[in-house]
Write a structure and sequence with these properties.
Layout lengths: L21 H20 L3 E2 L5 E3 H5 L5 H5 L3 E3 L5 E4 L4 H9 L8 E10 L11 E10 L4 H17 L5 E7 H10 L7 H8 L2 H4 L1 H8 L2 E3 L5 E3 L5 H14 L4 H11 L3 H19 L7 E3 L13 E7 L7 E7 L5 H4 L5 E7 H10 L12 E3 L7 H13 L4 E3 L7 H11 L3 E4 L2 H6 L1 E6 H8 L5 H6 L4 E5 L3 H13 L12
Parallel strand pairs: 1-5, 7-10, 14-15, 14-16
Antiparallel strand pairs: 2-4, 3-4, 5-6, 6-13, 7-11, 8-9, 11-12, 12-13, 16-17, 17-18
Helix pairs in contact: 1-5, 1-14, 5-12, 6-12, 10-11, 11-12
Length: 491
């Protein structure tokens, strides 16, 4: 009887999803730790909400099957329609509404995965990580300034110097809609098109406001078919908006100053600017930019986004704004809120390109090799002492007894130091340390990898009692996050 062929499962990741290898995940965790340090320094509290939310929570009470299909949605236990969260803000609104005794203002941060049924593309995934900060329960513009200050301080602490946080307010744009005589039902579409100004350029925006255009791929982009005089009014605003900073506010005041919404928005931006000045936020890092719109319709006031000036192709990597109506869905009344969100994966890729993070391969700093199985209790004692002193360490637990292969393992996974001790060392009360980091640098200069593994200049023998002091002197600098001189508020 022929043996039935065993069916194998193809080891592939779902479309739009990805794995994170150890080196990349270590870098990501390192970055998250630095961001958390900034947020907690500024008094934000950690919150973790459920990955699954009811369809009503995410889409509102009048959702339909088509809108649920746009999320990772399904009907679960108890015949409840639900979906994976696609952002944190709605979950935060639900949490605030269900905790009426929560002290306000509530300053919270949250990070984790979110899921969107988007078309996958380069750098665009269906599962990705976000990191949000929000202040809920206050309409005081000091909260908006605090969010902007947190954005600036975060980038300084990550070692990024050449960046810019730009901010504006939806109130000015609401006044612009009134000024240009645009019907309210077209307001959001007009803002969406203006938001493309930096990416697509002025000519493309003007065409999209009118008859439409053909994009670079040859696809037809339908226009909004606004009247010529309406487009002219919007262009007058673009002339003003393309002037940055205080000059833009003065010009906007002349153009829109008699419209109540815009008048309030201009006053708001001046107030935020005053707060940032008093907080001693570097004025070269924060700028008023009236072209900032932000795509989400729930923004009601100030909006802001951060760009990396050395990597403009990465777009906005830390963005947000004020949303004073979102909790209405759950309470039937407004609770003001403001927040911002980091696209973790995009920012991580940028940090790696800017060499602002160490790209480590291992969490262990030391590998204890096993030369003599009869001495295993002694090797485990060394391992215990290292870990007791807070030095991340591992013992070689593979099957080979070959020392060279053990050292090669340490090199391959990126462990900086290897501890070697045989019978001679134990009898002499000594221990040998091989510096694989130095070895890797030497390996770049020699074609014979076996030679550097044996090289005396990358190892030294010391008294066994000096092992821990030696390692602490040499690896402690790797534990200290890189801070920039401008991040003066941090220890």
């Amino acid at each position: 009887m022929a043996k039935e062929k065993k069916q194998r499962v193809k080891p592939q990741v779902l479309k739009g999803f990805r794995d994170y290898p150890p080196a990349e995940e270590i870098a990501r965790e390192q970055m998250i730790a630095r961001v958390k340090e900034v947020f907690e320094l500024m008094g934000f509290l950690p919150l973790q909400t459920a990955s699954l939310e009811s369809a009503e929570a995410l889409l509102g009470p009048h959702y339909d099957d088509e809108s649920l299909a746009e999320l990772f949605g399904f009907v679960g236990p108890e015949e409840t329609a639900m979906a994976l969260r696609y952002e944190f803000t709605l979950s935060l609104a639900r949490y605030v509404a269900s905790n009426p005794d929560l002290p306000l203002p509530f300053r919270r941060y949250q990070y984790g995965n979110v899921w969107r049924v988007d078309k996958p593309g380069p750098g665009r995934f269906r599962e990705f990580m976000q990191f949000d900060i929000d202040i809920v329960g206050t309409s005081n513009l000091l909260a908006d300034a605090e969010i902007i200050a947190a954005m600036v301080t975060t980038f300084e602490h990550l070692g990024i110097r050449n960046f810019e946080v730009r901010y504006s307010t939806r109130k000015i744009l609401n006044g612009l809609i009134e000024y240009a005589g645009i019907p309210p039902d077209k307001a959001q579409d007009v803002m969406r098109v203006i938001d493309k100004l930096e990416r697509q350029g002025r000519e493309a925006v003007v065409l999209e406001l009118g008859p439409g255009r053909v994009d670079q791929s040859g696809d037809k982009i339908k226009g909004l078919a606004l009247a010529t005089d309406q487009i002219k009014q919007l262009e007058n605003f673009l002339d003003v908006a393309e002037t940055k900073g205080e000059n833009a506010l003065e010009s906007a005041e002349k153009l829109l100053g008699n419209i109540v919404a815009s008048e309030g928005g201009i006053a708001d931006l001046r107030q935020i600017q005053s707060y940032l000045d008093s907080m001693q936020i570097d004025p070269s890092k924060v700028k008023i930019d009236l072209t900032i719109v932000r795509g989400l319709s729930y923004y009601t006031g100030p909006v802001f986004e951060t760009s990396l000036l050395d990597l403009p192709e990465y777009g906005a990597v830390f963005s947000g704004g004020r949303y004073d109506s979102l909790v209405d869905r759950f309470l039937g009344r407004s609770i003001p809120a403001v927040g911002s969100s980091i696209g973790i994966d995009r920012l991580l890729a940028a940090l790696i390109e800017l060499k602002a993070l160490d790209f480590q391969q291992a969490t262990s700093k030391v590998l204890v090799t096993v030369m003599d199985q009869e001495r295993l209790p002694d090797y485990l004692a060394i391992l215990h002492d290292l870990r007791a002193e807070g030095i991340p360490s591992e013992i070689f637990s593979g099957d080979t007894k070959n020392l060279t292969k053990q050292i090669k393992y340490g090199d391959r996974v990126g462990i900086p130091y290897v501890v070697i001790a045989g019978s001679d060392e134990f009898e002499a009360g000594t221990i040998t340390i091989k510096n694989l980091t130095d070895g890797r640098e030497k390996a770049e200069k020699t074609a014979d990898r076996k030679e550097w593994l044996k090289a005396d200049e990358i190892q030294q023998t010391i008294p066994a009692g000096e092992l821990i002091p030696f390692l602490k002197r040499n690896w402690v600098s790797d534990r200290t996050p890189r801070a920039t001189p401008t991040a003066r508020v941090l220890p």
